[in-house]
């Protein structure tokens, strides 16, 4: 199996690449990533020399590059994670989300479809698979406390980020329907864990607590997210890629809802203990700031389909996962310093040339 994973230098992608490279030594894994601000090859330093792993620097907005790469490498499968992923950035710069998340995804669909058709595989593309990794944010915001997002929930994206991911999901399904491309999708809740870029809530708070900076809580801190340890998401992606039914969608989540303010308070307690600070010290850094524009109130995933049909379930309790995550950031200070200083980007500059 020649497998293309896009966005493998990012947070979730790096865990997916590691899992596939180590669990499937018989696969050839190609990691395609543009190394934007969110891409960091240090996330993969432990497996970068594995014989079944190849990194390709390239941009999914470049259609010709993708066609050439598919023609040259004849992939059997694609797991597509490359994206602009941060909601706040989508509010200030929506167009880069349209370009990467929508145009980039359609470029990738075209390259896969055309190269597989050229191999004589149309109309059913036997043995091929295009897997699109998406988000629960496409469903919008839940207001009734009893409600969960199921695979049947209507799309109602509220931010430029979620609108771009919803559009990309629709294109993937449209290619499945129109061209019979063998697609499968998943929509996952908030991930956390090692390698999480420190613009997102949990790593930002860990970093700010450590460096005694304010902990910015948007609005009243009452927005609810459903958190899943990133390795459990990678395990779910493995299950969907190998066992998911063609054309279907799987919701992935931890049944683990937390208000933002409760998470930040819990992190403050953990950090006080780990840093040997008197209890209550870090919580004094909590600062309520202007709310995110259009801030979705609550996300909560009903993950019964993947649990019942594919036998997946989360392996870690949240408190345990959060302890692990804090420990990872405290023991990987170089990673954090390189990211917050921007050194990680200078280091890789010139090391790879665009194809
Ligand atoms: P990330 O921002 O950490 O990583 C994205 C990766 O994509 C980076 O390595 C970046 O360099 C690469 N990339 C960006 N633009 C590119 C382009 N034009 N061409 C090639 N590569 C490009 O994102 P993440 O948090 O790891 O999310 C990965 C995927 O999972 C995304 O599709 C996201 O929508 C989805 N997702 C994320 C979460 C979450 O909680 N983070 C939850 C559900 C779904
Ligand atoms: O639900 C899945 C989504 O989760 C993914 O699709 C996105 O790629 C990922 O970024 C994440 O989106 P969120 O917007 O939920 O994540 P973020 O970490 O940015 O914010 C989590 C919550 O914390 C949200 O309610 C906003 C709030 N927040 C965030 C930051 C960065 C704060 O209160 N203060 C902050 O400084």
From TrEMBL:
Q: What EC number(s) would the UniProt record show?
A: 4.2.1.46
InterPro entries according to UniProt: dTDP_Gluc_deHydtase, NAD(P)-bd_dom, NAD(P)-bd_dom_sf
UniProt keyword Amino-acid biosynthesis, yes or no: no
Pfam annotation, one family: GDP_Man_Dehyd
Q: Which reaction does it catalyse?
A: dTDP-alpha-D-glucose = dTDP-4-dehydro-6-deoxy-alpha-D-glucose + H2O
Name of the gene this protein is made from: rfbB
What is the originating organism of this protein?
Answer: Spirosoma flavum
Q: Does the keyword Translocase apply?
A: no
Q: What is this protein called?
A: dTDP-glucose 4,6-dehydratase
- Which enzyme class? lyase
| CDD domains from the UniProt entry | dTDP_GD_SDR_e
Q: Where is the NAD(P)-binding domain?
A: 4-325
């Amino acid at each position: 199996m020649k497998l293309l994973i896009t966005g493998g230098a990012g947070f979730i992608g790096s865990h997916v690449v590691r899992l596939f490279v180590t669990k499937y030594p018989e696969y050839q894994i190609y990691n395609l990533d543009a190394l934007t601000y969110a891409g960091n090859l240090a996330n993969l330093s432990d497996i970068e020399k594995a014989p079944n792993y190849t990194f390709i620097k390239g941009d999914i907005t470049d259609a010709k590059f993708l066609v050439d790469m598919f023609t040259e490498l004849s992939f059997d499968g694609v797991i597509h994670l490359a994206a602009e992923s941060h909601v706040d950035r989508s509010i200030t710069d929506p167009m880069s989300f349209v370009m990467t998340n929508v145009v980039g995804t359609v470029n990738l669909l075209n390259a896969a479809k055309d190269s597989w058709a050229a191999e004589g595989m149309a109309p059913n593309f036997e043995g091929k698979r295009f897997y699109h990794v998406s988000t629960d944010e496409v469903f919008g915001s839940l207001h009734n406390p009893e409600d969960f997002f199921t695979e049947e929930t209507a799309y109602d994206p509220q931010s430029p980020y979620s609108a771009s991911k919803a559009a990309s999901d629709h294109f993937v399904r449209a290619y499945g329907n129109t061209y019979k491309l063998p697609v499968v999708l998943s929509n996952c809740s908030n991930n956390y864990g090692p390698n999480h870029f420190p613009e997102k809530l949990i790593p930002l708070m860990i970093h700010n607590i450590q460096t005694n900076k304010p902990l910015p809580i948007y609005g009243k801190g009452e927005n609810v997210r459903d958190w899943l340890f990133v390795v459990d998401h990678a395990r779910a992606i493995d299950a969907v890629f190998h066992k998911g039914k063609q054309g279907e969608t799987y919701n992935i989540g931890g049944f683990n809802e937390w208000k933002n303010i409760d998470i930040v308070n819990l992190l403050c307690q953990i950090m006080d203990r780990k840093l040997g600070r008197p209890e209550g010290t870090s919580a004094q850094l909590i600062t309520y700031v202007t709310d995110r524009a259009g801030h979705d109130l609550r996300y909560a995933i009903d993950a019964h389909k993947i649990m019942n049909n594919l036998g997946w379930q989360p392996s870690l309790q949240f408190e345990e996962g959060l302890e692990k995550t804090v420990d990872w950031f405290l023991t990987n200070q170089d990673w954090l310093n390189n990211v917050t200083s921007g050194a990680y980007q200078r280091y890789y500059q010139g090391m790879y040339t665009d194809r």
